[in-house]
Each structure stands twice: as C-alpha cells, then as structure tokens.
TrEMBL record:
Keyword field contains Cell membrane: no
UniProtKB keywords: ATP-binding, DNA replication, DNA-binding, Helicase, Hydrolase, Isomerase, Metal-binding, Nucleotide-binding, Primosome, Zinc
Protein name per Swiss-Prot or TrEMBL: Replication restart protein PriA
Reaction it catalyzes: Couples ATP hydrolysis with the unwinding of duplex DNA by translocating in the 3'-5' direction; ATP + H2O = ADP + phosphate + H(+)
Length: 851
DNA sequence: AGCACGCCGACT
DNA sequence: GTCGGCGTGCTC
C-alpha cells in the first residue's frame, strides 16, 4: 500500500500547508476539517486536515500524524467549511494556516497542547542519577545532565506533570527542552498527553426550574409551607425560580444563595423544582427571558420578497438576492420570516451585520422570535465563551447565528440561509491579515451549501447593484414603508455662499433651524466628520504643524480631554512638547476639539438648548451607551457627534438632522469616495422623522451640485448609481474591472522601492503573457489589455511607523486572468531580505480603499 | 509565528 | 566563567 498523505493547515504564518503521513495502523485517513495533533519543529501543534491535495515534497522527511482530536464523522470544521477556507486562501492570496485559524475558535488551535508526565522509570532514573553524583559509577544509560533537569522539574510539579509550555517558560531556561522531551519520551522516562480544550464537547451545567406542582393554587400554601419549612432563604430561592419562569443555571443561584444545593434538596424531593443538565447559557444577556415576538403581517412588498425567497428555499438550490429596501421598509422582518422557514425545514441560518449594528436591541429582536436557538457572536466574548458558542453552534443546538464579519465562518450545520444586512458596509472587509470580504465569502459559502443568500441594503454597494441590474443575482425591491411618514425633506446649504463660522462650520441657516426645533420641544442631531474637525497643534512662530516622528502624515491629532497627541496612522501617543519641535522657539497652540467647539457654540447660540456631545473622548467605556440613553430619555435637545451615530441606534424624538460638511469625504483620492459619501448622507438623513411627521435634514457642503450630494438630497439611489456606474465603466473600475493592490513596506526606502520594481517586473511579464493569449482570440485587437499595472509608487502617506510604504495596483477586465496572475505572483510575496533591508509584500484583493 | 543556534556585553 | 540580548534560518 502506498503511503497515505494529508495536507495540514498549521497556525503558523507560513504560506503553505504541511504534508504528513497517516500511521499505517490507522484504519482510515482523517477527513478534511478534522483537527490533528502533529509534531512540528519539536513542538506538538494542533492543525486542521485541509480540503486539498498534499504536495509531494522532494527531500524533506515526512512525519507521522500524532493523533486525531475529533471523533470520527464529526470533524471540527465541516468539509464544507474546509473547502471554504481553501477558497479564501486561494482567492485572497492568504496563508492557509491563517485562514483555517479564522474558522476555529482560538482555544481549539494555536499553542503547544502537550503535557508531560514523569513515568515510573523516569522517577527511578532520576533517583539513580542522583546516587551517581555521590558515588560515581559507570553512568551508561543514565539521563544526561540536561535530561535530569527536565525530570527534576517534573518531579517537583504536582502529580509529576507539567504542560510543555510551562517547561518552556521555566527559569532558568533549559536549553533545547523540546528536543529533550522527545528524547525522554522515546526512552519512556516520561509520557506525553494533551489538553483537549473543548475536546470533551460543549459544557453543560445544572439548571433548575419551578415545576407546576402546587403552583398558584389557593389551597396549596399549607402544603407548600411544609416542604419549605421555616427557611426564609429557601422561600426566597423558590420565589426566584418561580419568577424566572424558565431554567435557571446553577451559576446564577450560587451568588445570592451560597448554600443553594442544600436549600434545593427538599424542593427537588417534593417535585416543586426540577433539575436538568443543560447547555451552558452563552452570556448573561442570553439568559434574560424576553417577551416572545410573533411574525408580523407582511406588507405587500415584504410578502412579495418573501414569496420569492421561500421559493428559492424550497428549490433547495443556491440563489442570491439583493433585498433593496428603503430605510424602514422592514427588511429585518423579511429575514426573520425567511429564517423561520429555514428552521421549519430543519436548516440553520447566519445573519451578518456591521460591527457597529450588533447591538443588544438587534440580538433581542432575534432572540424574541427564536429564543434559545440563537447564538450571538460579538466582540466582547471571552475565549471560553466564544468556544462555548462555537461548540453549541457546531452541534446544532444554536442553528441561528448573528454576528459581524467573522461569523461568516460559523460552523452552522445544514446552512440554508445567509443574510448580509447593510451589505454595503465597509466593516465586512477585513483590513488586516486575511483581507477577506465577508459579503463575498458569504456568497461563495451559500453557493457551496446550496443555501439562499440575501444581501440587504437601502444603498447597495455598486458591485451588488450592478449584479442585480444585470441579472446575475435577483433584485427584490421594497419601496413602500410601513409608516405613513414621508421621507425627510432635505435642504442643501452651500458653504461657499453661506459663509459659515470658520471655527464650527455652522451657518446662520443651520442655527435658525436648530433654534426652531428646540423651541418646538423637539430633538436634533448634528453630525460632523471626525477627520475634518481633528484638532492639531500649530506653532505660533513658524506655523509648523506638530507631526508624528515615525510617520509622514502632516499632523497629529490633539485630544483635549487627556492632553495627549495621537497619530492616526501608527497610534503613537505623546504629551504635547513645550516648544515647537521644528523651530525650537514657538509655542504650540490648539483650538477646542471639533465636537467641543460645536457643542459650545450651540449651547451659546440656541436659547435654552441642552447639548450633549459624543466623540472619542466622551464615548470611552460606558460613556457611549450612557450618553445615548440620556438623549433618548430626552434629557438633552441637541446631540453633537461623529459618524458613530450614523447607524444602529434609534432616536425616536429627532426631527432635525444637520450635517456640517457633507462633502468632506469627496476630497479623498479614492475610487469609492462618492459611494461612501452618498451612503453616509442617506443613512444619516434616515435618522430624521418621528411618528408620521416627516423630519428635516440640512446638509451643508461646499459643492452642493456634486451628484453624490444632490442625489442623496433627493433620496434617489438609482440616479446616483447610474451616474457613478458611468464613471466606473469609463475608468474600468469595479464593478467593471477587478482590482488587486500590492503593498510593499520596510524600513529602508531604497530596498522597498527595489522590491516594488522587482515585483512589478514579475507582474508585467505575467500581464504580457495574458495579453498574448488574449490577442489570439478573435475580435480582441481593439480591446484594452486584459491586465494593467498602475505604479509602483509611494503610498499616500509614504512613511508610517518608521516603515516606508509603496504600492501598485493591478487592474483586470475579468477575474480569471487576475486570479491566474496572482497565483504566479504568490510565491514572490511575503518577507524578503534581512535586517535593515528586509521588506514585506502582500496583496489586497478587491481593496476597499486605495490609500 | 516560535524556537534553536550562535555570537557578543554585564553579571555571579 | 554563565546568562541572556537579538540576528538568522528552519519548520512537513
Ligand atoms: Zn515653530
Ligand atoms: Zn505615526
């Protein structure tokens, strides 16, 4: 029989899989997605069997798999997810190990999981060796001095056992411990086992519930008292359980009733209380019982969309749809009812929402409808909580998953629905490490799982919109809103003609509107762009802006609250210097923070207005939720804030929304600047209005004629899209062209530039090959070259964190040549050179921003 | 990413 | 003399 080989993804930052042999004694080859323990550079690492052919290597000796950590037939990652990881690694040019790590909770992968235990023979050998020191004899076969140190460390540990990582951490260090452990194990002087974090499966906990026995009956009190006895504590405990109405985990009783077990005994015996081992509650929020919510009667639009989506679900084939519904058209109810349908068919669902929209209100909405079948994956989970959630999802106990970007990898079995809400949101693109787009990964996953994908938005990404328009995906429109309230009336105010106050950008028109609103007893929100209002320190002698020592960005941001300067690019924080660093003489002056300036001006100019401010300084910790709650309770009239207010929070009392500089983002040299501006304005404008009264929106801008602004004011997405798509088509930008941005960085400018040129040569050669093949096809003479290279050139901010950054853009007319070219480029990426001249190169496929 | 191995300064 | 600082090279 030929050697059975598997490729294993390991949590190391190396761009390849590792080939291992399956021991001959194993009856079968572990399946893709199964976790395996493998020897790797003297360590014992947990990896995942890849859904890919093992590469045959020349020379390097192939090691044996040590152990399969998952039960047969139940790999940690379903084969479907393993395939998805392979696709992501290939498409986004990312190391497989890193991709598989995205799909597993941190505790299931990573570090060395082995434990070493002193064996009987080891203890004897150690004792014998110690004898020898006193009475030298022939020491053949005795452990070496280094080995003795390891054995001694084990002997000193409780139960003669230590985690390998503790042995590594031991001070003073034992040189070559890992090799020594291997040697000792081979001589059977120690035995090796491993921690299977989560290997035991999902954790359970005792839960208690008040039964119906003797509940509420008027005659019961007498009998009840007999069972309870005279203990006030026992009575309180019973009351608590009765009030909870459902299963209460033991963990929640331990606090208020330290002796809860004893207290419960007679109650359990009498049948007043039932006990059951149930899955641990995922987090404190999840335990709260909510008023169950019933499906609402759909509007005509909702019903039509649902009918189509249910048809797709019934067909059991992959189908993708854009659910294009104006703000307030009730997209969430469509998701809820579609998911209910998927559940009725025994399937599961994933709902992806922008990070900022993953609020308790949103998860409550799903929990109220689907109860304990929902898992919410939010960023606040501890590693252990994340593992609990992951295991419960994997075993099918929580078939509905709500989460941000990374939830696209949730191991939901029998996935039937994937929803990407606010699909245009930039947070779905991971901007570090594996630079994947959760929206696009969701589509690929849905296709592979034959699931229904729904992309919801009022202002879809132009890629999505074009796919819908051209019929690549279905286009479901919802134009009516359940409320009778008309869309807000938007007024544009030109900053060019209205002469704003230079400090605050407030125009007379904006002030008047705010005065009117407050006088009418209503609330207003004023938005400003954080970056446009960033405070800087300027020298009163030479006029220089204080800038970061490690970056070439023009200025650092001054945070008044903590009296600190911060660099937006590298995160460097420093105290303001006494004197100007440039001339050494001038004093550094600053204004108030943007939000603060506006807050002060409004408090002065709007009579009787109570003004709240929300920015980085006031939103730290609990500040954000506290301020929002205050405003919602109508304890203030005006809320001044940055874009963090633009979604996820409802303000029912707001009738006026003011935007200080609507076209701020348009100045950036970025292909998506117009799109982002339009989306932001539309989103922000949607905040105005109450009950059935329309709100008012005031947008101040320098260029009010710009279509991104003008069409937003008219709530006309399609006109905006038509205009923007024309521009994109002309420039061969997405969705009509496909981009990959190559970034090169390193400490030395010359080395970075040279590396960039080298890579550019590789890309040009590959592009030329693509062009030659393309030219052979008939009718292609006039077409533009299928792949173009723009650059290399220095990035907009050339120096960040003492590293020089260069970039170049690959633009292709279609996907296949781009993917072919990236595969050619792949082996030349990563680190090169050493020391001072070390450079790093990577690719961002489908970049969001070209800066 | 770790970690071994190797080569130089500041401690017992 | 050893400890440990990081520079460099390797991991199936
Ligand atoms: Zn100066
Ligand atoms: Zn900086």
């Amino acid at each position: 029989m030929s050697e059975r080989l598997v490729s294993v993804a390991l949590p190391v930052a190396l761009d390849r899989g590792f080939t291992y042999a399956v021991p001959a004694s194993w009856p079968s080859v572990p399946e893709p997605g199964a976790r395996v323990l493998v020897p790797f550079a003297n360590r014992g690492l947990v990896g995942v069997v890849r859904a890919a052919q093992p590469e045959r290597l020349n020379g390097a000796r192939i090691k044996l798999l040590e152990e399969v950590l998952d039960p047969p037939g139940a790999p940690s990652l379903t084969p479907e997810l393993a395939r998805l990881c392979e696709w992501v690694a290939d498409y986004y040019v990312a190391p497989v190990g890193e991709v598989y790590r995205l799909a597993l909770p941190g505790l299931l992968t990573g570090h060395d999981v082995r434990r070493v235990m002193l064996s009987e023979a080891g203890a004897q050998a150690l004792a014998a060796a110690r004898e020898v020191v006193l009475q030298p004899v022939d020491d053949a076969g005795l452990p070496t001095a280094a080995e003795q140190r390891v054995l001694a460390a084990l002997a000193a540990a409780p139960r003669g056992e230590l985690a390998v990582e503790r042995l590594i951490d031991l001070r003073p260090r034992i040189p070559g411990v890992l090799r020594l452990i291997g040697d000792l194990a081979a001589k059977e002087l120690c035995t090796i086992s491993w921690d299977e974090a989560g290997g035991e499966g999902a954790r359970v906990e005792a839960h208690y519930r008040r039964t119906d026995y003797l509940r509420g009956a008027a005659t019961a009190e007498e009998t009840l008292r007999e069972h309870i006895g005279r203990s006030k504590q026992r009575r309180a405990l019973l009351d608590l359980l009765e009030g909870a109405g459902s299963w209460v985990p033991a963990g929640e009783l331990r606090g208020p009733f330290p002796g809860y077990k004893k207290l419960l005994e007679p109650l359990l015996a009498a049948g007043l209380v039932a006990v059951e081992e149930r899955l641990r509650a995922l987090d404190p929020f999840a335990a709260e019982t909510l008023e169950p919510s019933l499906p609402q009667t759909p509007t005509a639009d909702q019903a039509a969309a649902l009918a189509t989506l249910r048809g797709d679900l019934e067909a059991g084939k992959f189908a993708a749809s854009l659910l294009h519904g104006v703000t307030g058209s009730g997209k969430t109810e469509v998701y809820l009812q579609l998911i209910a349908d998927a559940r009725a068919r025994g399937g599961g669902a994933i709902v992806l929402v922008p990070e900022i929209a993953l609020t308790p209100q949103l998860s409550d909405r799903f929990r109220a409808r689907f109860g304990e079948t929902v898992a919410v994956l939010h960023s606040g989970l501890t590693p252990r909580q994340r593992l609990d959630a992951w295991q419960q999802i994997r075993m099918g106990a929580r078939p509905i998953v709500i989460g941000a970007r990374s939830a696209v990898f949730a191991p939901v079995p029998d996935l039937k629905v994937i929803v990407v809400d606010e699909e245009h949101d930039a947070s779905f693109k991971q901007e570090e490490g594996v630079r994947y787009s959760a929206r696009d990964v969701a589509l690929v996953r849905a296709r592979d799982a034959s699931a229904v994908a729904v992309l919801g938005s009022a202002t879809p990404a132009l890629e999505t919109y074009e796919s819908a328009r051209s019929g690549k995906i279905r286009w479901l429109r919802m134009t009516t809103r359940p409320t009778t309230r008309p869309l807000p009336e938007v007024e544009l105010i030109s900053l060019a003609t209205h002469r704003p106050d230079p400090e605050t950008l407030l125009t007379g028109r904006m002030r008047t509107a705010l005065v009117e609103t407050v006088a009418a007893g209503e609330q207003a929100i004023v938005f400003l762009n954080r970056r446009g209002f960033a405070t800087t320190l300027i020298c009163d002698r030479c006029g220089a802006l204080h800038h970061c020592p490690d970056c070439s960005a023009p200025a650092m941001t001054y945070h008044l609250g903590r009296n600190r300067l911060m660099c937006h690019w590298c995160g460097f924080i420093e105290a303001p210097p006494e004197r100007c660093v440039e001339c050494g003489e001038g004093e550094l002056l600053h204004g108030n923070a943007g939000t603060e300036r506006v807050e002060l001006a409004l408090a002065k100019d709007v009579p009787g207005a109570r003004v709240l401010r929300l920015d980085r300084d006031t939103s730290r910790g609990k500040g954000l939720l506290e301020t929002l709650a205050q405003f919602r309770r109508r304890e203030a009239d005006i809320l001044v804030g940055t874009q963090m207010l633009s979604k996820g929070h409802d303000f029912p009392g707001v009738t006026l929304v003011g935007i200080l500089q609507g076209d701020h983002g348009l100045g950036l040299p970025d292909i998506r600047a117009s799109e982002r501006t339009f989306q932001l304005l539309t989103q922000v404008a949607g905040r105005a209005g109450r009950g059935d009264r329309p709100g008012r929106v005031l947008i101040q801008a320098y260029g009010i004629k710009n279509p991104a602004i003008a069409f937003a004011a008219e709530h006309d997405f399609e006109a905006f899209a038509a205009w923007e798509l024309d521009k994109r088509r002309e420039l061969h930008n997405p969705p009509f062209g496909h981009l990959a941005l190559v970034r090169i960085s390193g400490p030395d400018q010359v080395a970075v530039q040279r590396r960039a040129e080298e890579l550019a040569a590789v890309i040009r050669a590959a592009a030329e090959e693509v062009r030659r093949k393309h030219a052979e096809e008939p009718g292609s003479a006039e077409a533009p070259p299928p792949v173009q290279l723009l650059g290399p050139k220095a990035s907009l901010i050339e120096r960040v964190n003492r590293r020089v950054r260069w970039q170049m853009l690959i633009r292709a007319s279609s996907r296949p040549p781009l993917r072919w070219l990236l595969r050619q480029l792949r082996p030349r990426l990563g680190d090169a050179g050493s020391g001072e001249f070390k450079t790093m190169a990577n690719v961002d496929v489908d970049p969001q921003s070209l800066i």
